[in-house]
């Protein structure tokens, strides 16, 4: 019997998020011939992202475009998605493991009385039995899981599956007629966009992180300059967050974000076990620390022993030349 | 005001993970309150200090979980409830269903939990519970103010912040930065011993093992390949910087 896959896609700053294309690719990995893929896009003013999405797979894009959905609110988004789910009965619903996906997926799982596997990093299809790999203890270990009966919900960690590319024939785009949710018990009062225009930490291909060694909020400036040259994002250790040099939103580690970029550059970070849990799966790790005994060097592919305030600007120069 | 905190006991974050016969070894492991849930406990205590009321901490887990609940009592919570039963072997959907059956007979204004657990880390239980109880929620909050029947919460949304007003009863999950949890005081530890501590099994909750059956299953558990130390570059810092860029191009091929 043919199955239906639903990918719940997302935008950020008016652009389609890459993790949504990765989720489409994940659906491709899980599906067999004859299975259907529907992507759902929720938000406001979605024309551009909907077209981009449609170019990348064969199937259907359902667009729920409404001013009420301009910013994420748990109640309005679950109301919209529930309306969509009353017209389609998917076997598998895929989300990005993003702030929105992490909040929306368990609501859907609960309403569908379905199992959910969160933060999936790999998918295998062995003869129709789909196996999902995910980290536990923030990556100190991994487990392989399955959804009993095969259907349910998954959230996909960004940067782990190659995004879907252009399809031979594009998906059709259809507008979904959304009835605004009534009798809401919550309302958005204010949204402060501090991260607009910045590359999201979990999706970044390059992450430059600062620790207590950056010594102050201003000490992050050279790291930001390097991030700009490499089109990367700036992260931090808890040491730097606790010291008030940066926001907790930047924290990487077991109690922060887990990142898996192509290049991770740790500057003035000692390499505590909780920090390592959040970045050890990066492809290439570079450590800059003035202490040659710092544990971070034990996991680094390349290490530079020295003062980060000297080394980082030198690197920025070198990368600028190399990428020019 | 009746403030409930749902908390999980987890391994101390310093612990290494050792796998034997497909299971994680727990011999001699130190346990803590899940760090995110500790923020939830602290926030509950602060709300009680401001508005009065009762703080009740609730956990599903094996007998050792009592220790985490006692720590919360020592921090200042008023009552603890441990939901424990040998036949509880279930995933996030089942844990949420158990909690929902407990809350079904309680009268609550606020339920606070953590954004996710630092062990299994699914980030599902609290949000599922809000759905099952049909109450609104906000996750990953970094600020919470309550007045009258309303709460105003500031959520962290990937670096942006969103302010949400929610009518009570409601559920919130704590993000790092919400507060600085207090340590249990010595008098707090003494007092904790006399505070109400209720233990409930499936019978007391009137729920059968069938209705909390797991919807997912684990097939395999493994450690990731260990990372090996690479090379420490040599020479003057400017030379090292140039060498690094060259290696990233030619050896690692990531540029
Ligand atoms: C429950 C719990 C959860 C935690 N979760 C996390 C987590 O998720 N993420 C996390 O990161 N930590 C976490 N920690 C904290 C962790 O244990 C460490 O304390 C923290 O990672 C240390 O941060 P740091 O490396 O920046 O600081 P430090 O350990 O103080 O290291 C600073 C480093 O900078 C170097 N340095 C100083 N000046 C310079 C300079 N000019 N140039 C170059 N190098 C310099 C020093 O040699 C040193 O190695 C957690 C702790 C607990 C108890
Ligand atoms: C088939 C199967 C069998 C399992 N058997 C066991 C078992 O025998 N023993 C075992 O310990 N685990 C078992 N687990 C794991 C267990 O289901 C999860 O640890 C649990 O569902 C919580 O998920 P989580 O840690 O990802 O929490 P998250 O969903 O990340 O937690 C979010 C928040 O919900 C709250 N919360 C989470 N868990 C609890 C809890 N237990 N009590 C109160 N509040 C909570 C906390 O506020 C927490 O911060 C099993 C899992 C599977 C798939």
UniProtKB/TrEMBL annotation, chain A:
InterPro entries xref list: DHS-like_NAD/FAD-binding_dom, ETF_a/b_N, ETF_a/FixB, ETF_alpha_N, ETF_asu_C, ETF_asu_C_CS, Rossmann-like_a/b/a_fold
One Pfam family linked to the record: ETF_alpha
Domain Electron transfer flavoprotein alpha/beta-subunit N-terminal, first and last residues per copy: 5-188
Sorted UniProt keywords: Electron transport, FAD, Flavoprotein, Transport
SMART domains, alphabetized: ETF
Protein family: Belongs to the ETF alpha-subunit/FixB family.
PANTHER family: ELECTRON TRANSFER FLAVOPROTEIN ALPHA (PTHR43153), ELECTRON TRANSFER FLAVOPROTEIN SUBUNIT ALPHA, MITOCHONDRIAL (PTHR43153:SF1)
Designated name of the protein: Electron transfer flavoprotein subunit alpha
Primary gene name: etfA
TrEMBL record, chain B:
Record's keyword terms, sorted: Electron transport, Transport
Pfam families found in the cross-reference section: ETF
Domain Electron transfer flavoprotein alpha/beta-subunit N-terminal intervals: 21-209
InterPro entries named among the record's database cross-references: ETF_a/b_N, ETF_b, ETF_beta_N, Rossmann-like_a/b/a_fold
Origin: domain of life: Bacteria
PANTHER family reported in the protein's UniProt record: ELECTRON TRANSFER FLAVOPROTEIN BETA-SUBUNIT (PTHR21294), ELECTRON TRANSFER FLAVOPROTEIN SUBUNIT BETA (PTHR21294:SF8)
Similarity field: Belongs to the ETF beta-subunit/FixA family.
Subunit structure: Heterodimer of an alpha and a beta subunit.
Descriptive protein name: Electron transfer flavoprotein subunit beta
Species: Paenibacillus vini
